[in-house]
Amino acid sequence: MNFRTWCIVFILFTKQLFPQSSTDSLKLLLKQTRSDTAKLRILALLSEVCDEKDIPLYTTQGMELAKNILKSSAEPSLQIANVETDPTKTQLPPKVKKSVFNYYGRILDSHGLYEISQGNNQTGIKYFEKAFKLQSENNDSMAMASTLSNIGLNFYYIGQNLKAIDAMNKSLEFYKKLNDKLGMAGAYTGLSIAYRNQGDMLKGIDYVYKSLSISEELKDEQSIAN
């Protein structure tokens, strides 16, 4: 199994860990709720835990709903198109804005993952970049770290190694600040693969040993084996 396939399988396998009964409960709740913000949250959750084939069903609804929420709260002087290209131009109350950006960002991330599972890497990157903009506005370091990692992997897949390394290094810095050991191990593994692909075997080996060291510290047997 090559690295690209392993990543996609891992992403989709983790989705299956969410109980079907809970997914059904979310679907029922989506039908019953009246609040647009609450609907957006449920759609974000569903997009993260549903079967791969159903991801667009929830992300398409979620993206449309998020755009409508932002349009309805846009500054009067702005055109609707401006709000779609720059969703930060809104008059939403701060707490509501933070929630909407959080759920919208998660939906964009889910759709980006779906696109790469279909081999549409350039499209996936565009969705991740939109998500990153919202996460930056929210100062959500964990989400930004994860999205940068996804961006880096996609650049790697399409052969843009320098961009991949840049994104992965930025992701690593966020994980270090958060002291997220699991995230750091993943970032080191990604950097190892990117550097080895460039022919820098020594740096690649150095990074994979850093990943191994963290995995041993965490007693993560699957990562140690990999």
Give an account of the 3D structure.
The model is unreliable at 1-6 and 8-17 (pLDDT under 50). The protein has helices at 3-15, 20-32, 36-49, 55-72, 80-85, 94-117, 121-137, 141-157, 161-178, 181-197, 201-218, 221-225. 80% of the residues lie in helices and 0% in strands. By secondary structure, it is mostly helical.
N-C termini distance? 12 Å
- In one word, what is the shape? elongated
Please tally the β strands and state the result. Answer: 0
Largest sheet, if any?
none
What do the pLDDT scores average to? Answer: 87
What is the radius of gyration computed over CA atoms, rounded to a whole number of angstroms? 19 Å
The class by helix and strand makeup works out as: mainly alpha
Low confidence ranges: 1-6, 8-17
Query: How much strand content do the residues show?
Result: under 5%
Q: Number of DSSP helices?
A: 12
In short:
With 226 residues, the protein is mostly helical. Helix content is 80%, strand content 0%.
